[in-house]
Structures are given as structure tokens and as C-alpha cells.
Design brief:
It is a single chain. By secondary structure, the protein is α/β, with parallel strands linked by helices. It has two domains: 325 residues, ANL, N-terminal domain (Rossmann fold, 3-Layer(aba) Sandwich); 99 residues, ANL, C-terminal domain (GMP Synthetase, Chain A, domain 3), CATH 3.30.300.30. It is 30% helix and 25% strand. It is built from 14 helices and 19 strands. The chain has an eleven-stranded mixed β-sheet with strand order 4-3-5-6-7-8-9-13-12-11-10. The chain has a four-stranded mixed β-sheet with strand order 18-17-16-19. Strands 1-2 form a two-stranded antiparallel sheet. A hairpin with a 6-residue loop joins β8 and β9. α7 crosses α8. The chain is globular, with a radius of gyration of 22 Å. The termini are far apart. 45% of the residues are buried.
């Protein structure tokens, strides 16, 4: 088993020899952190005021760093211009994120060409965790606009001598499978639900590897892909805030090796914000290192995961993000219970025949109801009943249903959903002001 390719990338960008070790990585990252904080205080009005009186040279340990204030999504939306550390002429790309269902100001992330090049560097090296130079890659990602995710990936792999093409949006899975066969693509990158639908159209063993990105991927979904088409699945963790790329699994599948030269990851208690012991699941907090346009210091992502800094079975020493649950936007339901889309993913994607779904909450006659629209493979005519049974296996939903103020609404089969790459899966709450 070869060591994670992210190790060599992180060592090079931190100025370390490879193979490296945790002590040298941590020392180099603290130096990068001090430089990043100094850059932010000097160039950003927001950080200049927030960190007034702080001497960056005093940041020597993780405990020193943990005393700095958090940056929230609301801060990012409200004070984006004040966070900017370069002139507008130096900004190569702006990505606007509007939280689903939100009427507030959107978040706008700014990147210089150097910032984007660091992502290209990670994409190139990270992909070699699952491909070789002989592979041919198909990216089911937006790619037509310059510096879009697919475009960055295609350029990254070209630098590594690997041919990559893009398809967006993917719609006709049978035609796409024929193209993959005829043009000898051996690795596919895309959203988990898209790769699931595609896997049932592919001959077994044709595609060697698949990289699941951009949304939560329950183990049940990965297992179905691997059983359907014989591909080995890998996970990628990344958000716009991490610079689109964050971490990728190696062949040991023991968590996503993080790009530690560019990101400092903390795990904190979701309620208190206090650091949790290593190995405990908590909220992922991201600090960007060496980012020029808009450095983020202690940004609370809302994602849940745990961190592992022990040596990986692959021999790598880069920290790994494990048990990634994604951004948990929980909806309150009857009797004080709450449910998130990840809870539904775990049970619904285990249903043979289900390819994708959208869940929504409504309120009528004093009762809440959860309804599901879904895509299914032909021949699975009893999925409506299976979906209702699966919903009852979610503890929060089961307990709420016993109160008689919460019911399972209809499960309706549909022909298609509008493709979306930028919005994470959520439960659509149509109950108005009720919470």
C-alpha cells in the first residue's frame, strides 16, 4: 500500500523533507499560522480590529491559538469586504454562497490566482491517492466556467499527465455509461447520488475507482456502488471555505488526509466551542494557511467529524478527518426532537432501488409531516412502503410519530431532480415560521 500522496504535497509546501513526522509538521504549521495572522492583521480591517493587541509571534501552541475568537458564517456574510486582504484587481475568482432558505446576505469568498493554484496543486496530488498516470478520468462536475471546480480538476490532472474531461449536468446515465465504456474512462469523480445512479448502468469492473465529493456519502451508498459496478470508492472532504479542496482518502480508507500546508483543522464541542480530545466527534473549525485574498481564522464550518493524527496504515502522517457527517442542519420537530438530512441518508440510501431523494417538512391541522420525493430504479415498485418503514427506523422520527403531532406524509416517485452542485443536501422546511 503506497503512502498518501497528500503527505508529499504537504511536506513540500511546508518546506520539509519527505517523509516527515508530526513534530516537524506541527512546528512548520505554527510558523505558517503566525505568518497568516500577521498578514490578516496588517491587510484586513476586520482582523486589525478583532486582533488588536495580539502579537502573532506569541502563537506557539494549539492552546495559544484556541484563545483567538471564532469566525462564523454570519461574520463572513456581513463583513466580507472587511476581511479582504488584497485589492480587487488581485482577486481572480469570487464564489457566492447563499444558504438554502436564507434571506440574509450571501457569503462571498475571494481567491487570488495564487490561492487557486494551491487548490490545483492539491487536486493534482490528491487524485493520485486513487489513480495512476495510466488512468483516464471523467469529472461529473461544473467545468465550463474558468476556475470552476471541474475546470480546476481538469487542469490539475493535465499537469500530472492525466487526461480528464468534464460532463455537467449528467442526465442520461445509460448514454453516459456507454461513453465511459467506448472512451475507456477508468475513474469517475462526482456527487455521491450521481455516482450511485451511474453505477447501475456500468459493466462490473469497467471503472476502477470513484471519488465521491461535494456532499455527505453514507457507508450504505458506498457499499451499493461497489457491489453494483465493482469500483473502489474514495471520499473527498472540501468546502468553498477550504478552497474547494480539503482532504482525500488513501487506499487504507481510514479518513481523509488533509492538506496540512494550507489548512489547520480543529475539532470543538458543537455547543460550547471548547476543544475536544482527539478522536471525539465535534464541529470542524478551519483556519486557512498562506491564503492571500481572504484568510479565515478559526472558521466554524458546522460540519461534524473527528480528527486522527496517528500514523495511517498507508504509512502517511498527515492528519485525517474521519467519520465525516457534513454540515448538520437539524430541523426541530414534535416533542423537542430534531432530525437532519444525514439521518435520512443513512437509512434511505440503504434501500435497494432508491437512487436519490428530497425530503420536506410541512404543517397542517396542527400536525407536522415529513414527505419524500424520490428517484428509483425500474422494477422497484414497493419503495413507497419501504421508505415509510425506513423513516420509522430513525429514532427521532419514530419518537415524534408516537406523539400524534407528527406523521409520515406521502412518498412520491418522480422522474428527475434539478442538478445542484453548490447546495448541500438538506431537509426543506416548508412550515413557515413554526419551529
Amino acid at each position: 500500500m503506497k503512502p498518501s500522496s497528500v503527505d508529499a504535497l504537504s511536506a513540500r509546501r511546508l518546506g520539509l523533507a519527505c517523509p516527515s513526522d508530526r513534530e516537524r509538521i506541527e512546528s512548520a504549521r505554527m510558523e505558517a499560522l503566525r505568518n497568516t495572522v500577521a498578514h490578516a492583521r496588517q491587510k484586513s480591517p476586520w482582523y486589525r480590529e478583532r486582533l488588536a493587541g495580539l502579537d502573532p509571534d506569541c502563537l506557539r501552541t494549539s492552546a495559544d491559538f484556541a484563545r483567538l475568537p471564532f469566525l462564523s458564517g454570519a461574520d463572513l456574510a456581513a463583513h466580507g469586504r472587511e476581511l479582504l486582504c488584497v485589492s480587487q484587481s488581485e482577486v481572480a475568482r469570487i464564489i457566492t454562497l447563499q444558504t438554502s432558505g436564507s434571506t440574509g446576505p450571501p457569503k462571498r469568498l475571494h481567491f487570488t490566482r495564487e490561492d487557486l493554484d494551491s487548490t490545483v496543486d492539491f487536486f493534482q496530488h490528491g487524485m493520485f491517492s486513487l489513480i495512476s498516470s495510466q488512468d483516464k478520468v471523467l469529472a461529473l462536475l461544473p467545468f465550463s466556467l474558468p476556475d470552476s471546480t471541474g475546470d480546476l480538476l481538469i487542469r490539475a490532472l493535465a499537469k500530472g499527465g492525466v487526461h480528464c474531461e468534464g460532463v455537467w449536468p449528467p442526465t442520461d446515465w445509460r448514454a453516459l455509461a456507454l461513453r465511459i465504456r467506448d472512451e475507456n474512462f477508468t475513474s469517475i469523480v462526482g456527487l455521491p447520488q450521481h455516482l450511485l445512479a451511474l453505477s447501475y448502468e456500468l459493466p462490473h469492473g469497467l471503472v476502477r475507482t470513484m471519488l465521491l465529493c461535494s456532499d455527505y456519502a453514507p457507508q450504505s451508498l458506498r457499499t451499493r456502488i461497489e457491489e453494483a459496478c465493482g469500483s473502489e470508492t474514495f471520499l473527498h472532504y472540501g468546502t468553498t471555505e477550504t478552497g474547494l479542496g480539503g482532504g482525500v482518502e488513501c487506499q487504507a480508507h481510514g479518513g481523509c488526509h488533509m492538506r496540512e500546508a494550507d489548512l489547520l483543522i480543529e475539532i470543538v464541542d458543537l455547543r460550547t466551542g471548547d476543544p475536544v480530545p482527539e478522536g471525539v466527534v465535534g464541529e470542524v473549525v478551519v483556519t486557512t494557511l498562506n491564503r492571500q485574498a481572504m484568510p479565515l481564522l478559526r472558521y466554524r464550518t458546522g460540519d461534524l467529524a473527528r480528527l486522527d493524527t496517528s500514523s495511517c496504515l498507508c504509512g502517511g502522517v498527515t492528519a485525517r478527518l474521519c467519520d465525516i457527517r457534513g454540515r448538520r442542519k437539524a430541523c426541530s420537530i414534535a416533542e423537542g426532537y430534531s432530525v437532519a438530512s444525514q439521518d435520512l441518508d443513512d437509512v434511505l440510501f440503504a434501500l435497494d432501488g432508491l437512487l436519490d431523494y428530497r425530503a420536506s417538512l410541512t404543517r397542517s391541522a396542527g400536525r407536522d409531516a415529513i414527505s419524500v420525493e424520490f428517484l428509483a430504479r425500474p422494477g422497484h415498485e414497493r419503495l413507497e412502503r419501504e421508505i415509510h418503514q425506513a423513516l420509522k427506523s430513525v429514532p427521532a422520527l419514530n419518537m415524534a410519530m408516537q406523539s400524534r403531532t407528527f406523521v409520515a406524509g406521502p412518498a412520491l416517485r418522480v422522474e428527475s431532480f434539478s442538478p445542484s452542485h453548490t447546495l448541500k443536501r438538506t431537509i426543506l422546511d416548508n412550515r413557515g415560521s413554526y419551529s
